[in-house]
Structure formats: C-alpha cells, structure tokens
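Protocol step 6 of 9: fold each sequence in the batch and record its structure tokens directly after the sequence line. For illustration, a two-sequence batch is reproduced in full.

Sequence one:
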Amino acid sequence: MIPLKPRNRETPLPDLTPMLDTVFILLFFFVIAAAFAIHGVDLRLPKSSAASSYAGHPIEILLTADGTLRHNGELVTLRDVAFLVRDNSKSVGNNRQILLVPDRNAAVGDFMATVGAIRDNGGDRLVIAAEPIAAIKP
C-alpha cells in the first residue's frame, strides 16, 4: 500500500523577474527622458542698439525660427499665449512683464502675430529680447 501522508512542502518564493524587468524599463525610460529634457532651445536673438540688460521674473515666450511658440519648455499656440496674457493681466498684485524672445530667423509675420496676440489680450507690459550690438563679435 502507498502511504498517503502529505508531504511537507516549502512555500515557494515569489518570482521577482517581472518586477525587476519593470523597474529596469522605467529606469531606462527616465534616463532617456532626462537626456532630452536637458537640452534647451538655441535662439539667435536679433541685434539692437537699444538693447539693455533686464532683471526680473517675466512670463517668457520663445518664438523659434520655424514659427513655433514655447512657454516653460512646452509648445504653445497663439490661443494659449492669449490665455496666459489674459490671466496675467487679471491678477492685480502679480502682473508680471511678458518677455518675448524671438529667434533672429523667425518670420516677421509670426513675430507680428505673436505681438498682436499679446497686445490684444492686455499685454501692455511686453518686453522684446534682443542682443546688444556692442556685445556681438565679428
């Protein structure tokens, strides 16, 4: 006869392989995302004899050579710029200046459309970034 006595089984340890795979995939994703987040937008500012240094914490809007707009590193549209300016002009105690940073190769039409959107929505404190002529080396 066969003894039907239950065996003493050890409880198996959980398989950690799927969790480790997930951790390494997330680590890889964040390392790659951080590498892309470090790079900024390289703009060549227009030259101006009236350029002076500026200090403060304005709302900064970048106009790139291809006509795209950026705010805090994110792509925005003219409509988004209008909302930013409108929200800024509504705040009484914290009405910050708006700094428009155009690329030297940006189209005049894109520049004028951006300035128009800012002015039409109450952006009367507009500052346009430029590079001083004296600082340019041939």
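Sequence two, same batch, same settings:
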Amino acid sequence: MPRIFVSQKRVQQWTEEGRVHIEGNQMTLPELGRMFRLTEAFYVERAVSDGGDVLGIKGRVKTRNQIAQLGGEVFLNSLVIGDAAYEGDPGFVGEPMQRSAKQVTSRPGLDGVPQRSLSSAPTGKVLPKNPS
C-alpha cells in the first residue's frame, strides 16, 4: 500500500467521529484494520509570491524535515522558503505499517465487548473476554 497524505482537519474530523485512533505517531483505522506511521507534512497547493513556484513544489507534499532542509518554515496554512511563499494544508504523511500480534489492540466487538487476539495468548490457552 502506498503512502498517503491526510490533512490535520481530516484527522481531527475522523478522530471526533471515532473513525481513527491516534497513539503517538501511529494512526489506526479500525474499519479497515490498517495502521499508519505518521510524519508531519505540508501539502503545497499554490505559490503566492511574486516569483511564482520557483522551487517547483506546487502540488507536492513535503515533510517537516524536508522543509527544514530547504530552510523553510510552516505557519498555519502558509509555507515560506527564502523569498518563495506558498499556501496549502498542514497534515501528515502516513506510511502503512504491518500489524504484528503485539500491535493488535483490543477493539470493541459487535456486542461492545473488547475482542482479543488469540495469537497473543499463550499456546493452548484462550484469554477470557472480560478479565477481572
């Protein structure tokens, strides 16, 4: 699966709707059973300085590290690199992660009771649904 860009607004909306779970730099989409490692980034929508898109980055996503290497700064929906100014969307690049048995977390099942992964249980034992 390729990397994705998700704007901050979209992440906030999905979080409020309960469609994603964010823990540290990991985003989980329970509906799809997918996890992504997040890196702060900025989608460059358009050049707004007189010189135009002198750096050729319009329509591209740049991580905060890439922006810093170019000597740029992001403030809200603006990116400034030297004399070049751009507008766009702050957000995150998501890189797909493989889920191991240790990364599988309890998720509510259809009856609202957390589901448990049997692959993380010791051999020959099944974990109870509601441990006390």
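Proceed to step 7 once all outputs are recorded. Observation for sequence two: The chain has two domains: 4-99, 107-132.
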